Amino acid sequence: MASKPNVVLILADDMGFSDIGCYGSEIDTPNIDRLAAGGVRFSQFYNTARCSPSRASMLTGLHPHQTGIGILTKDDRPHGYPGALNDGCVTVAEILSGAGYATSLVGKWHLASNIRQVNDAWPTRRGFEHFYGTLAGSCSYYQPASLTRGESNAEAEAQAQENYYYTDAIAQEACAFVREQSQANKPFFMYVAYTAPHWPLQAREEDIAKYRGRYDEGWDVLRERRMQRLRESGLLADAVHDCERDPEEPAWEQAEHKAWEARRMEVYAAQVHRMDQGIGDILDTLEQTGQLENTLVFFLSDNGACAEVLPLDGSAEAFIQRRPDLKRLKPRNGCDLQVGNEPAIVPGPEDTYASYGRAWANLSNTPFRLYKRWTHEGGISTPLIVHWPAGGLDNGAIVRTPSQLTDVLPTILEATQSSYPERYRGCDIPPCEGNSLLSALRGGQPTDHPLFWEHTGNAAIRLGRWKLVREYPKPWELYDMQTDRAETQDLATLRPDMVLDMAVQWAAWARRVGVVPWDDVLEGYRADGKQASEAAG
Predict the structure, then answer these.
(1) Beta bridge partners of 382
(2) CA 362, CA 378: separation in Å to the nearest integer?
(3) Which domain, by its residues, includes 344?
(4) What mean pLDDT comes out for the span 506-531?
(5) Which residues pair with 476 in a beta bridge?
(6) Domain co-membership, 324 together with 374
(7) Catalytic residue among 63, 65, 110, 198
(8) Same domain for 263 and 244?
(9) Model confidence, pTM
(10) Considering the domain boundaries, does residue 525 fall inside one?
């Protein structure tokens, strides 16, 4: 190839498996669909079930426990994880920066336990020369807390702009970086980490208006339609026969407050739609500057759809008191902040702070079970789209071999002809846990290797067609992914030998990568006089 490719890694936040058009959604995502039409889709790609662990794994090629981030970014030592990227890993930005690439992060970081003082876990200290975004996790889209430019607080930038909206700002900053690099004589790596569509449900009214009425038929009808489109696309083939509603949720016909329920999903769809528009701006800028042809683009989500209900664990007042960013938030319309999922709070505007709930998350994860935090398919399945016009990809193909986030870094390194180090900044670095997907992207046979997960006691191992999965503290379940990706027929009692063998392999992996037993984490919280429920973040 004449020159090394640029790399653009685009990550959505809390977006479900079927929330984009090319994966069955009714949400309009023409720009992401454009990537899929001219690239390759994956039908069995997996994240790690939660935002911070997924980001750590994707950027380092290691399992999150190896990087210091097993749950979120809270320092739980001595009973748990430090909650920040440690010195025993190297990021793709650090590797590519050393290989002559310009590097940029635009958007959410969420990999540092200390976001008040500059430290070695900040993006600017982990290979990113340019950074504009948020250091923390969720935040207001209109006045994002922990907004940072370089190593300086930039919250005033957002507050000074009457029409500021974080999703738009991420795209604008990314486009500016692309234009700047078009004048430079070296390739670039840009990590675009959206917070959309993570709660709070906040969107521009003109975007919400595009979806008015689209969800009036409810989650049951829409889930069946998504399932039909997934079947027609070939993404699931015959691996899912049933598409059942979450048994904990009512049928749409029995749901109360239907207009308010539909509004929640309208706002969520508007958030995804606005993200897609920003991705379109980035692609257009790459094209206008003559760089799209030789730019390797990834698009995926950090975990499955989120079923969390706001306020988390308590009253709205208590939730605000625990969040300093919300305590000082002053909506521009002069109203007080309204926190909670109740019909009196109509989501969308800057003064609301709500989520869309379990029933709509069940739609987002069509056709899978459970949600963010769990290691069942609903928690870990993500779309993955890879687009590289000059890369010789098997455009239009669907890769069906199971793979996961540890495979992203090796793919980038092979594409950019860069080497993974054994040591970095005086520290030994564990071997990369994943394999390059480049051969599979070009129509070859991908490497099939064991896949492992653990998050807050929920655990899984995938060996070929078989998946062993556990919802803490319940026993192991066994599923044949070739015929039952919806995980409806537990075969554990029929194949106890397989359950035992796979459980032994999982335990060996857990010891090797430093998984802290969840019972130990919980006991540590109790020993410190804290509620065990706080341990999950």
Answers:
(1) 45
(2) 8
(3) 313-354
(4) 95
(5) 470
(6) no
(7) 110
(8) yes
(9) 0.97
(10) no
